[in-house]
Amino acid sequence: MSLNTIEINRLMNRFDSHDSVWLFGYGSLIFKADFPFIERRPASIAGWSRRFWQGSHDHRGTESAPGRVLTLVPEEGATCHGMAYLVTPEEFAHLDHREKNGYLRLATEMTFEDGGRLEGIVYIATADNAAYLGPASERDIARQIATAHGPSGPNSEYLLELARALRELGKHDEHVHAIEGHLEEFTRAAR
Ligand code: SIN
After folding, report:
1. Using a 6 Å cutoff on CB, does residue 99 contact ligand 1?
2. DSSP alpha helix (H) spans, the chain
3. Largest CA distance in the chain
4. CA 51, CA 84: separation in Å to the nearest integer?
5. Cα(27)–Cα(160) distance, integer angstroms
6. Could you name the domain of life of the organism this protein comes from (predicted)?
7. pLDDT tens for residues 75-109?
């Protein structure tokens, strides 16, 4: 399954004339920065929550056994903590390719730890994309993540790396850390 959002994202030219653009990462972009950046700073965005509701058929799963990766869902009063990267607009060709399975570039305001706010880009996979899997219990999500595997590696690695990176940032995410707990339980039981 591939919705391939590369062409749609290429039309998002809002920041093309800028020398540099802030990119907000909340998932793999926190722990796997495989692109050059000018600067990186912890940041947050308001009104969004991280959820393992997006299917991964190209990175952490396959067509027949998709993995689950993160997207953001709107939630009043919520704050999503992550990492912001200052990049040149040219980096978006690589980023669009990496995030091609359903993610769209969206302009967003992000807040830095010193309280400063700037506009930039975040990749979001909305409920109407073909790879969207939607809600499930955190236990069922952990069960799916425990077995899925794709070209970028095991789905469990995505979850565990993210959970570790959030701890390093000093941020607790109920959803992510609950799924991590279930995964550890399944791993212990399988020993
Ligand atoms: C992100 O990390 O900001 C987008 C979702 C992902 O690539 O995991």
Report:
1. yes
2. 6-10, 28-31, 92-98, 138-147, 155-168, 174-190
3. 55
4. 19
5. 11
6. Bacteria
7. 999 999 999 999 999 999 999 999 989 999 999 99
Residue 2: count of CB within 10 angstroms of its CB: 12
The string of pLDDT tens digits covering residues 5-22 is: 888 888 888 888 889 999
User: Which listed residue (63, 91, 99, 109) is catalytic?
Assistant: 99
Q: Which atom number of ligand 1 is nearest to the Cα of residue 162?
A: 8
* Residue 89 contacts residue 16 (beta carbons within 8 Å): yes
Among 29, 80, 83, 103, say which to mutate for ligand 1: greatest number of ligand atoms within 8 Å of CB.
Answer: 29
Look up 113 and say whether it is catalytic: no
Please indicate whether residue 25, judged by its CB atom, sits closer than 6 Å to ligand 1: yes
Q: What is the mean pLDDT of residues 129-145?
A: 97
